[in-house]
């Protein structure tokens, strides 16, 4: 394993590489088609180099452990707005997730419906491209740039365009209070309708999820609110009245520890941890989710399901080797957990339409003309 300790060393390693490189942060997200290549770790590029709590801005080396970033922010009553998921439980991986890996995979949790994805909190990046050139884009404040928006391109590129060395992020203050309105017993269709009503209300919802089989095995719909104490209490009461119209039993949880635990369960898809089946992450129009699930249930009655993002994100666990794209739906699906054989035989990422695929190919030829960075991972 190659583990450069600074950006210049990394650039030399990439420039002199005579074969494919497997770019890796903490190694916690074993997602994508199996690839070959010498492992190039970014964990030596670690440390928070700048943190300005008053400006809600943080700059860190790509190899900085996510836990270190979160602890630094928490000490000042702040957090990453996009609530990144911890994949280790689902994938059975070890190690420590890095902030660069989070950005490269555009990892975004339940709060995405309110604040956007990881890329929307990204202010700037530094990276080494496939020729060993050091490039940078953006900075410590939001601004528009001409040419490629490299900040957005690098988020979700999975190390195929360049090796991140440093990221700049905007952060947010932790809320004074939290609450979760729980509705028990709703069908998938009614749950999506209830979540849509909550998200369409003026009550500033920061999480909307539904488990057809929750911790106790029964359906539960979860609506999260955050903010000042008086505001949370007011909005919880209003949402209770709104959601009671959908027929389920409604209750409100205000214990911060219990609310945090419940949303960590959603964020990390704990329902599907410790299992052996394939797990797919499917993005659809919320109203289409129940129909997709019904089609899949007809073939796989025992599959596990979790709806997040108000129903726009559907996690499904099906028998190993199953391709959920065999049923008809409009959206896109990504294979998150699968055996090596499954990942080698089924496209892990949603196949792109030809015009978009041509654009992607063109971008890779610009930034990695030798095709050595995580080659084949997204094929």
Q: What is the structure about, briefly put?
A:
The protein has helices spanning 7-16, 66-74, 88-91, 99-104, 112-115, 150-154, 188-199, 229-244, 256-267, 289-299, 340-345, 354-367; strands spanning 21-24, 38-41, 48-52, 57-61, 78-79, 122-128, 134-138, 163-170, 172-173, 177-184, 205-211, 220-227, 249-253, 278-284, 304-308, 313-318, 331-337.
Give a written overview of the molecule.
- The chain is of the alpha+beta class.
- About 2% of the residues have low confidence.
- The chain is globular and about 65 Å long.
- It has three domains: 167 residues, Uridine Diphospho-n-acetylenolpyruvylglucosamine Reductase, domain 3, CATH 3.30.465.10; 91 residues, 2-Layer Sandwich (Alpha-Beta Plaits); 69 residues, Alpha-Beta Plaits (2-Layer Sandwich), CATH 3.30.70.
- β3 and β4 form a beta hairpin.
- The chain has twelve helices and 17 strands.
- The strands form five sheets. Strands 3-4-8-6-7 form a five-stranded antiparallel β-sheet.
Low-pLDDT sequence parts: 141-146
Write down the Rg.
21 Å
The assigned CATH architecture of the largest domain is: 2-Layer Sandwich
What would the principal axes of the Cα set say about the shape?
A: globular
Q: Could you give the order of the helices and strands?
A: HEEEEHEHHHEEHEEEHEEHEHEHEEEHH
Q: Pairing-aware structural class of the strands and helices? A: alpha+beta
End-to-end CA span: 24 Å
Domain count: the total is 3
Strand residue content: 25-35%
Question: Mind sketching the topology for me?
Answer:
Elements lengths: L6 H10 L4 E4 L13 E4 L6 E5 L4 E5 L4 H9 L3 E2 L8 H4 L7 H6 L7 H4 L6 E7 L5 E5 L11 H5 L8 E8 L1 E2 L3 E8 L3 H12 L5 E7 L8 E8 L1 H16 L4 E5 L2 H12 L10 E7 L4 H11 L4 E5 L4 E6 L12 E7 L2 H6 L8 H14 L12
Parallel strand pairs: 1-2
Antiparallel strand pairs: 3-4, 4-8, 5-9, 6-7, 6-8, 10-12, 10-13, 11-12, 14-16, 14-17, 15-16
